Amino acid sequence: KRCGDVWIGPIHPSKMATLGLLMHVMLVGAAALPASELQTTWQTWKGAHKRVYTSVKEDARRMAIFAQSKEFVEKHNSRVEKTWTAALNAFSDLTWEEFKQAKLMDPQECSATHTSSNWTSPNVQIPEAIDWRDYLPGPWPVKNQAHCGSCWTFSTIGTMEAHYAWKYKAMVNLSEQQLVDCAGAFNNFGCNGGLPSQAFEYLHYAGGADTEAAYPYTGVTGTTCNYDGNPAAQVADVVNITALNERELLDALGKVGPVSIAFQVSDDFRFYSDGVYDGVCDRDPDKVNHAVVAVGYGVANPTTYAVPYYTVRNSWGADWGVDGYFMIKRGVNKCGLADCASYPIVG
Q: Which of 148, 151, 191, 340 is an active site residue?
């Protein structure tokens, strides 16, 4: 029978094999489209990040990891209620275990601020929002810790550079490597981790910090300390903010300047691109595995769905996040960010 010009009657047996083959080709072609799209995205990403692998097998393994990263980013960004966006980046071909080995320190116990604090709030009004970068006397490039769990040194030195800048109205590029190599006696462990509060104590007793030029960064724990005893900046005292007291943290950040903080990085955070991070993470003070510099705070979307946040300087290079910075939810001790906060009194 016919319905218009379309034959709907029985198909002749001689045509059945041809039709079956045609259907198979169409189905295979449709299934291959996502793979073709993935391959194109993969090749583009490799070119952008200058990736060359040792074998075809390794390339295929990395592409499979990349595909999982791509799937997470697309799934996260499709959520209507999200406060932050994710993106593929330089870490998209790494497993979570590889990323932890490359960028995160071993979990640290924030003991220095657990029992007491020498924080005294200045008798001034705290601003509704602040970004201390606006008050810098010069450029302050975001640094990259490379393949070393030395984030604690970048947090320490970053906070010290900022406080030095506002006291002396001059920028100084200080040495992270000095802390990596020399601060072990203060319960720090080079590329395996440490805490800014303990690093500030080292700088106080050692006399201060060298410049980057005098003690350049290598990203490897050195076997000897090469500090020359001629510091470019000194620490007169260390202020530890009471653990878990986010009100103290906010006061210090609003009234004094940037603060070194540590928090727990979980798997999704490495894909952060923009917005106020509010992912799934742990708040326990013995789980912090990354140290950074809080440089300000504010409120996102104040007229609609208001989200209070901190602005934070990272040490994964300027091409990560928002020019090397990120925002994280404020007021809920997100990821344990108020567990061990401190800053130096620059001499």
A: 151
